[in-house]
Amino acid sequence: MTSPLLEVKDLHTEFRTKDGRVRAVNSVSFKLEHGEAVGFVGESGSGKSVTALSILRLFGPFTDAHIRGQVLYEGRDLLNLGAKEMRGIRGREIGMVFQDPLTSLNPLMPVGQQVAECIQLHESVGKEVANRRAVELLELVGIPDPKNRCEDLPHSFSGGMRQRIMIAIAVASKPRLLIADEPTTALDVTVQAQILLLLNDLQRELGMALIMISHDFGVIAATCDRVNVMYAGRIVEHAFTEELFRSANHPYTEGLLKLVPSLEQQKGEQLVPITGQPPDAFELLPGCSFAPRCPHVAQICRETQPQSNVLSPSHGSACWLSAERGGSV
Amino acid sequence: MTASTSVESPNDVQQAKDSMWSFRNKLWLLLIIPVVLLILLALVPDFFQNHDPQRQNLRGRLLPPWSTSTEGFHLLGTDSLGRDLYSQMVEGTRLTLVIAVIATLIGGVFGVFVGLVSGYFGGRIDRFLGRLSEAQTAMPMFLVAILLLSLLGPSVTILLLVLPTLLWPIFARVVRAEAMRLKEALFIEASIAVGCSTTTLLRTHMVPNIAPRILVLAVIEVGHVMLAEAGLSFLGVGVQPPDVTWGLLIAAGRPLLAVSWWLTILPGILLAVTVLIFNLLSRQFERVSGTAG
Fold it and tell me: Which of the two ends of chain A, N or C, has the fewest CB atoms closer than 10 A to its terminal CB?
């Protein structure tokens, strides 16, 4: 077996603020093979975005972010790279698409130039070549009439079009890994479907691996081979996408899945909310962080942190009750 | 902005453009005329002068405006040595403008640099630069300027070093605030994510987005620097004769205010009107570039 494209080992990310330490990511480990699509699901504040930002070390120069652990990209630990080497990784090896396409583009720069700029950052090509490539990329992501439109400023594009441009920028240097941080959250459903389709097509065409971050199981199901469910900075369950939908084990995953509205649902039939609030990231509970909200909570849950139990080679669940619960739902 | 408005936004932009260039809103372009005139006065003073501004004529001293001497017609009268006031005012335009513009440029470039670094990096650098600019703002810089100029001896070069020190904290403050706002913008993070270096980021993404504000501020500061230079020249620590600036003319006329008001009032009006024009122009830039408020 060849080595994985990306292997994250025991990643911890914490922010030191005036009020104390915020532990956003606690001991996250996962592997990503070449060309594979992995999803991260969880509520706001569950640490899925911070995990992605930690991989690329995308925290401002004076944000007091402390990242521990290992992020092995083809065997190289990204956390030990110098600033210059890291710039060679960002965009060149790992591309990123952000949540809000409306503010992700420089409002004062023609879009073609923004794509071309990204090409020139990583490859020593002339302006003309970069511009030609930019037009090709815009065409690839489905911007109509790219030759003329590349002169336009971002404001004359709709949200969906801008997200396509962002994707063009992210894949400009043919990265081997694309991280999409809630790429469709700000878009309406028809556009969402097109963008997801585009991401999937590009992933196949360019042979990229994909990390898809979303709070929407539908998005994950449409794009990902495997899923990691995150809660309070931990991966509480991981499985193949179908496996997870068929037999979710962790009570949190189960709760989330019950929250996906479906068309078959009777009118008036209530969605079942997960009661309570996600835990305060300032102080971690000694036991399972989901314990205060868990409907199946037992004494041990409040005292000791559960380790991930292997349910099948591809399926793991960090729950004390995982063995007896098996694959329910 | 919602998805539906962004679909329509090309129209909105067209409308905004139309209204910007409609007749009523185009009136501000008239302000360009006096500015062009000032620039012409500075570039080719000979073309406008009907006398050698330095030529003395003791038989035609202190003539009021609209009078004639043996030298010819004096539109704005003559001074105590019989020199033509109009020609001197034209002559003074060049140095007045050059000093104001260059001092603003020096102060602006330094202030923008400090503001960018301070706002973008924040933290310790920001605190240090913030204290520096506060310390300087707390000092009565005009008095310090007088002290420096009287110690080092007045000269245009020293003036060009002293005037920017009055200016840079203003630029630094505005740019810092803008940089702090902009660095949170997603497109800045996005350009880091594609591997942009910090210098490229500041140059190609931050500065163009702050530029309209810098321009608005710079135009208004040109007017302020003119006043400051006039003040220093008036006090005798600025520009020295035989160089001429408007401030110097005002100072020269002051002892004679009771007998020959025009020597003080006319250059004073010119200075005041010029500063007003720069102020108005700055206001209009602010409106047009949408940086108002």
Answer: N
Please tell me which of the candidates A105, A122, A155 has its beta carbon nearest to residue B13.
A155
Say how many Å lie between the first and final Cα of chain A, rounded: 34
Asked if residue A41 lies in contact with residue A256, where contact means CB atoms within 8 angstroms, the answer is yes
User: For residues B60 and B82, is the Cβ–Cβ distance under 8 A?
Assistant: yes
> What are the tens digits of pLDDT across the range A14-23?
888 888 888 8
Whether the full predicted model's pTM is greater than 0.80, yes or no, is no
Q: Do A91 and B194 touch (CB under 8 A)?
A: yes
Cβ proximity of B230 and B267 under 8 Å: no
ipTM here: 0.76
List beta partners, residue A177: A94, A209
Q: How far is CA A290 from CA A45, A248, A273, B34, B59, in A?
A: 14, 16, 14, 72, 101
A163's CB contacts (< 8 A; 6+ apart) are: A97, A101, A183, A184, A187, A191, A195
Q: Closest partner residue to B205 among A90, A106, A170, by Cβ?
A: A106
Which phi and psi (to 5°) does residue B142 adopt? -65, -40
Beta carbons of B195 and A58 less than 8 Å apart? no
- The CA distance from A221 to A39, in Å, is 9
Counted across chains A and B, CB pairs separated by less than 8 A come out at 93
Tell me if A13 sits within 8 A of A66, measured CB to CB: yes
Helix/strand/coil (H/E/C) assignment for every residue in A231-242? ECCEEEEEEEHH
